[in-house]
Amino acid sequence: MSDLQAALTDLAPQLGGTRIEGLRRLSGGASQETWAFSLDGERPLILRRKPPGTASVTGTATPLATEAALIRAAAKQGAPVPEVLAICDPDSDVGEAYVMAAVEGETLGKRIARDDNFAAIRPKLAFQCGEALARIHAIPLDGSLPPLNRSSALEELAKYETVYRSLGARRPILEAAFRYLKDRAPPLDRPVMLHGDFRNGNIMFHPETGLAAVLDWELVHIGDPAEDMGWVCTASWRFGGQKPVGGFGDYADLLAGYEAAGGTPIPLERVLYWQMLGSLKWGVMCEGMYASFANGTDPSVERAMIGRRTSECEIDLMALLERAA
Amino acid sequence: MITHPTAPELIDSVIRFIEERAAPQLKDRDAFLCRVAVNALAAVRREIEQGPAAEDAAAERLRALLGRDGDFATLNAALCDGIQAGTIAPLDPAVLAHMKASIIDQVRIDQPQYSGLRTLTQGS
User: Fold this and answer.
1) How many CB pairs (< 8 A) connect A and B?
2) What pLDDT digit, counting tens, does each position of A284-304 carry?
3) Which residues of B touch A287 (CB under 8 A)?
4) Which domains does chain A show, CATH number per domain?
5) Do B123 and A322 touch (CB under 8 A)?
6) How far, in Å, are A13, A34, A47, A83, B44 from residue A102 at the CA level?
């Protein structure tokens, strides 16, 4: 029996069972591990954990206990999220981790935006995304939650401009986007709890019922509600789909769903502002990933080629700048 | 000096070798990286064929835009400096026209299948 299997077996009573079966690794990010298993052979569960030995070194990453607390807070507001069953301390046998119920559905962005089995439900997805965001943004900022970063548009721009300048790249469209967005940065007049990475690929959709669960909470922070709205519209996450919201839906449906679920109405122009900031942010991140190839940290062809994807973000920015002119 | 095989012909032969002989032997992450490698070679092929003309055209536009002489790198840096300093307006029609023509040429080399390329070329 592996150490993890043994540690989870000790945890089983807390999860409401006795046996852990079929434990398998699903994906391996550098900062997070995802494991699937079943409780007593009948209940499918998911374990998210920090790889052993990396706990608390990263600094900027949200602790998993914070992530789990936010998922529970979102559930309380009626947002579709997986049920969190247990939270494990960094010094427990499992390590820094939490266990949640597995949710049935699809997360591959391309299938959601383009596959035939999503054709019938697809027109409803943007509205459902708006509803989910309104509920996440309704999480009270009342001190019952762990401390979180707070960031305005100007602070986000400053963060990414520092990265961009440090790379020494000279790219006029990125310069123009920084200039344009800095000159029009909205104040953080109504800060809310943001998911922080709400986009096609991080949302579980079911082909019959639509939005099943909002996943990947590690970038949760406090900021402008239009930031989450703009990120789900950022063109890098459309996966070849023709529609602005995740490749699958229209702006009007996203905004209507948001209002229908009690969200304070957000003007489309403010969503487009954050959509542009989203493309700029992803463009800078592509440049940063290429830099890790150029300086020898990661010599893979994948890292080299991601530097050729900055231009995708730039052509998206170009369309938004042209629309603004 | 070199007449044949041309650089694009050599690249095509390598792509064909990878796709027909090497790729079927790979799985998981190596299979993924193999597809990325083929995409990289295809981008190099397009850059050899389209890159020089695109850079010449960009330098020509920059000379007209900035009203001075110089090579592409110098003029491109001057444009960036001007936008950053606020002396060149990012939404100036001539600036937008230059950036649009340049990015269309670049995405045609980097990722010609990207849907944003269609969006921008159809929108005008």
Assistant:
1) 102
2) 999 999 999 999 999 999 999
3) none
4) 3-101 (3.30.200.20), 109-324 (3.90.1200.10)
5) yes
6) 18, 11, 9, 8, 43
